[in-house]
Design a protein that fits this description.
The chain has 1033 residues and is of the alpha+beta class. It is 59% helix and 11% strand. The protein has 38 helices and 23 strands.
Length: 1033
């Protein structure tokens, strides 16, 4: 309801004593997007928090402080906080409301004595008061604060409608509004929490303790030194021991060992990745095999999961344009609705002659309009931004706010850096050319094992990308033993050198390495230059007394880059299935790189990028200029905005200048991340450009869902408020449609989590949402259709058709009464439970329906007997009551006996056997194969006997007072509803017992025998009470 909608619209978390109180101040509760343009995440979060606190302190007034003092002293705050959004309280409120409604009906149609009528009235009033206390206390407390600060918002409007029902003497209707509000508020709370994504779950992936270990002089962990300490107390630089099956407690770098590690909590990718010496690893990563020693790089507060959570929460507080627009008109809209309400209440009796009080009166219509016109669904519309940000955060994509999603939906040009975006950013050794033969011979690295062995020993321990590429190329190869490098030196800017068995070796630039070739250095240099092309990344290995070798390296193309580039270029990421021929949504791709032209051209060809869109050898200033030029060139197009994708510090100016800066980062603390609006958290060779199509798809879907939400909200307000104002909709239906539309908006938003997130809604939440929505839709459809047809026919003056309408209404009432009749008595539960022990749920439902059909037969027989003999026999209600008790008792005795007969083997199959068949065959096996005719007959007979009781006549009395056609319609649908409800009731009980059977195979037999025993016991008790004249039912 309002609380949740306000939290979405304003972005402020629930603070203090009441959700609505905080929302009243919510318009200042988060820093606006115009004010918060800082690229630094920590500054952004801190600034938002300071503004929130400052605004809250500024708006507090004396009346609020007085309310605080009173409510705190009386404990009202604690009570309201406990009741607000509590699922148990919502269920209890519904139960109390149903009891109050039944008692209210009995009070008017019970036909009992004065004592019974007074008892029903007392129960109805007591339950209604409890509903107001449980569901109404939080509402009234929140509205008190709203009024204290002068806020006239939707919360105030809806609560005034509840108070209006009390003034009109319709307390039951007000109670219905309160339980609807409480239920809707609970469901919307769940939806909003789900949409935000349970970011606290990130902390659940991080251990609270760490196994600290010390390393020996040779870098091997000393197992005896392992000790467990709290992760929060571990200092940066401490070495941590992580064995297989454990999680990494802090961000760190691997200093010993290697293992396959799962970082699904960061990237969303389920496949583990290999982590070796020198690789960074985030907190919460699961070590699936091997042993790792990790040196901590950050504290627990600055770990990757912590920063992701802070970034996402900050993004969800950053309000998009639509939220600010709704806020700007929300206050004026609420005041306008309140003005229309009072004008209608005052002028309608004078101008239109409508009575002021009573159902259908001006006051009643005004409050119905007030409830229906509240823009809860409209305020819930921006929930789609929260859902989108939360969904992508689960997949390793962090979006700074709704403004970024709006901008992404309008991007027409995407500028791509090459390294780390189109490529993986990791070097690989592509070939080795040897000059130790007559003619230079180029081959794969595996064909030059001795050269690889020298290079590996020289690069061991280095963190340079070339060293990593050499190490990777030697994996799985059987290298010759050339010994360990002695007299090891690193010559910065040139390479490395070492001594192998008295021979000096160098690996690095050609000038540096070829100095070892002596007099032959010039010839070797010429040979190497002839084999080298412009822009190639090469290194030369030279060993004294041997011919040199030329190593070629290249950046590795991201395997998913060509497909992703095609999706962006063609606009496939934005098109729906019906727009496949529409190419207008394609994005223009540019490559902006500081690398040489040869390397850039090769990668552009790999992703089919046009040569005129490739810009190489750029400085950061030149990248910035090209971004501005692209924006100027596209400013009049349908998609005028420009996005920049990069991963290095040299990309920071272009990232900041672009409308949307997208940074490729291994952690949220990388340097390029501070200048970006979107962070793509990569894992090794995945991520980068491969995540961009999904990002643009999400932005486009977010805008589409937002438009759907706003359209649905506006239609629901107009479609329910105007009929309510003209008296076509009762107050309860207006509220039902209003809350149903709000929930549908929330459901429509949260479906993005199912499409893009990894955690769909729970079955319970989904079932509750659909049930509530279907209930709203059915009630609205029935009311609208019946009223529309009635008005149409009345205008045509077709009296015969009016009879059809009244018959239709009688049929609807009969169907509802038949369904509810099944749930009203414990005798039905006792009678149907033994029938649930059977082969399959479908056949259980058929047996329940058969029993219901027999029940209807008994009712018809008793009704006929009553009509024939009512004028000939004196009606002694005491005798009739005893007869009814005897009939119920006899029925329960027979049913209990049948249950024991089947449970103990009197039937043709055992229970376990029947259930094994039920799962494998379902309803394909015919009934006679499992249920013999005697059992079926007795099921029908017991239902018939059960129907021969005076209580059954009670629900049929309305039909006796109706005209013939309406009476037939009522009875026919009453009997159909009873049969359907009895079968469904039995099906549900059987499904519950089947679920319990999975945990305990004997549980169902216990239920069968227990329910049969209960039926027998109650049956005997009722028969004895009938004989001795005791009134038990």
């Amino acid at each position: 309801r309002v609380g949740v909608a306000g939290a979405v619209a304003h972005g402020s978390p629930f603070d203090g004593h009441s959700h609505s109180h905080s929302h009243g101040r919510g318009s200042h509760g988060a820093a606006s997007a115009d004010e918060i343009m800082s690229s630094d995440e920590d500054e952004f979060v801190a600034k938002a928090g300071m503004m929130m606190r400052a605004s809250q302190g500024k708006e507090a007034n004396e009346l609020e402080r007085a309310l605080d003092a009173v409510f705190n002293a009386t404990g009202v705050h604690r009570v309201a906080d406990f009741l607000r959004g509590n699922a148990f309280v919502a269920v209890v409120s519904w139960v109390l409301f149903v009891v109050a409604g039944i008692s209210h009906i009995l009070m008017h149609v019970g036909g009992g004595g004065v004592v019974e009528t007074q008892t029903a009235a007392t129960v109805s009033k007591a339950c209604t008061i409890l509903v107001y206390a449980l569901a109404g206390t939080p509402e009234f407390v929140d509205v008190t604060y709203e009024l204290a600060v002068g806020n006239v918002n939707i919360h105030v409007l809806t609560t005034l409608a509840v108070l209006g029902t009390v003034l009109l003497g319709c307390a039951m209707e007000g109670a219905l509004l309160l339980v609807l509000f409480a239920s809707a508020h609970f469901v919307e709370d769940r939806l909003t929490s789900h949409a935000r994504g349970d970011l606290k779950a990130l902390w659940g992936t991080v251990p609270t303790t760490a196994d600290v270990v010390t390393l020996n002089s040779d870098g091997v962990p000393d197992i005896a030194s392992i000790r467990e300490v709290p992760a929060a107390d571990v200092e940066i630089g401490t070495t941590i021991f992580v064995k297989a099956g454990q999680q990494v407690p802090l961000d760190g770098v691997v200093v010993h060992g290697s293992a396959l590690v799962s970082i699904q909590h960061i990237t969303g990718e389920a496949l583990p990745v290999m982590k070796r010496y020198g690789d960074e690893i985030p907190a919460g990563a699961m070590n699936t095999d091997g042993v790792l020693v990790v040196k901590s790089l950050r504290s627990s507060e600055e770990s990757t999961p912590a920063r992701i959570a802070r970034l996402t929460e900050a993004a969800q507080r950053r309000r998009p344009k639509v939220s600010r627009l709704i806020d700007s008109i929300g206050d004026r809209y609420s005041k306008a609705i309140l003005a229309i309400t009072f004008i209608t209440m005052i002028l309608a009796p004078v101008v239109l002659g409508i009575p002021f009080l009573g159902r259908g009166g001006a006051m009643y219509r005004s409050f119905a309009f007030l409830s229906a016109a509240a823009p809860c669904a409209l305020l819930m519309s921006p929930l789609v931004y929260v859902a989108a940000i939360g969904a992508m955060a689960r997949r390793g994509v962090l979006i700074r706010g709704g403004l970024t999603l709006d901008a992404l939906a309008e991007v027409g040009t995407v500028a791509l850096d090459k390294t780390g975006t189109i490529t993986t950013g990791q070097m690989s050794c592509t070939s080795i050319t040897r000059f130790d033969c007559e003619k230079p011979e180029q081959g794969a690295p595996g064909a030059s094992l001795k050269s690889l062995a020298y290079a590996l020993n020289l690069e061991r321990g280095s963190s340079h990308p070339i060293a990593a590429a050499v190490t990777a190329s030697t994996r799985g190869l059987d290298l010759p033993d050339v010994g360990n490098a002695g007299d090891y030196k690193v010559v910065h800017g040139s390479g490395v050198e070492g001594l192998f068995a008295g021979k000096r070796a160098r690996f690095g630039t050609a000038e540096f390495a070829l100095e070892l070739c002596g007099d032959d250095a010039e010839n070797c240099s010429l040979a190497i230059n002839s084999e080298t092309r412009d822009g190639e990344i090469v290194a030369v290995l030279a060993v004294e007394g041997e011919r040199p070798a030329l190593f070629r390296f290249s950046d590795t193309l991201n395997s998913k880059a060509p497909e992703a580039a095609e999706s962006l270029r063609s606009g496939r990421c934005r098109r729906r299935w019906w727009e496949m021929a529409d190419n207008s949504k394609g994005l223009e791709l540019l490559m902006l790189t500081g690398d040489n032209q040869t390397s850039a051209k090769a990668m552009a060809e790999a992703i089919k990028l046009a040569p005129e869109n490739v810009y190489s050898g750029l400085t950061p200033d030149q990248k910035l200029k090209l971004i501005e030029d692209a924006r100027e060139r596209k400013k009049t197009s349908k998609y005028p905005r420009v996005a920049m994708v990069g991963d290095g510090i040299n990309d920071a100016p272009a990232l900041a200048a672009a409308d949307v800066g997208v940074a490729i980062a291994s952690t949220p603390s990388d340097a390029a991340a501070s200048a970006a609006d979107v962070l793509l958290l990569t894992k090794d060779d995945d991520g980068g450009i491969s995540q961009l199509p999904e990002l643009f798809t999400l932005a486009d879907r977010t805008r589409t869902v937002l438009r759907q939400n706003i359209a649905l909200a506006v239609i629901s307000i107009i479609g329910s408020a105007i009929p309510a104002l003209f008296g076509a909709f009762p107050l309860w239906l207006a509220v039902l449609l209003h809350e149903g539309a709000t929930l549908m908006v929330a459901m429509n938003s949260v479906r993005l989590l199912v499409t893009f997130g990894r955690q769909p809604l729970s079955k319970t939440t989904t079932l509750a949402l659909w049930a509530f929505t279907v209930f709203c839709a059915l009630g609205a459809a029935y009311t609208v259709c019946s009223e529309a047809v009635a008005i149409f026919i009345s205008q045509l003056h077709l009296s015969n058709w009016m009879g059809v309408i009244t018959a239709f209404k009688s049929a609807w009432a009969g169907l509802l009464a038949g369904c509810l009749h099944t749930l009203t008595g414990p005798d039905h539960l006792a009678a149907l439970t033994p029938l649930t022990v059977g082969p399959s749920r479908a056949q259980n439902a058929l047996m329940g329906a058969l029993w219901g059909f027999g029940h209807n037969t008994g009712q018809i027989l008793f009704g006929c007997i009553f009509i024939l003999l009512r004028d000939r026999l004196p009606l002694n209600m005491e005798i009739i009551g005893q007869f009814g008790q005897g009939i119920v008792g006899l029925t329960l005795i027979i049913i209990g006996a049948m249950g024991f007969w089947e449970s103990f083997g009197g039937h043709s199959h055992s229970h376990s056997h029947s259930h094994s068949h039920s799962h494998s065959h379902g309803t394909d096996m015919p009934m006679p194969a499992k249920r013999d005719s005697s059992f079926i007959s007795w099921t029908y007979i017991t239902g018939t006997i059960h129907g021969l009781q005076p209580d059954s006549l009670f629900l049929l009395l309305p039909a006796l007072a109706l005209p013939r056609v309406e009476a037939i319609s009522f009875l026919a649908t009453f009997f159909i509803g009873t049969i359907i409800a009895m079968g469904t009731y039995t099906y549900c009980i059987g499904a519950g017992t089947a679920a319990l059977e999975k945990n305990n195979p004997k549980f169902v037999s216990y239920i069968a025998r227990g329910s049969s025993g209960v039926a027998l016991a109650f049956g005997v008790l009722f028969v004895i009470s009938a004989v001795f004249g005791l009134d038990l039912i």
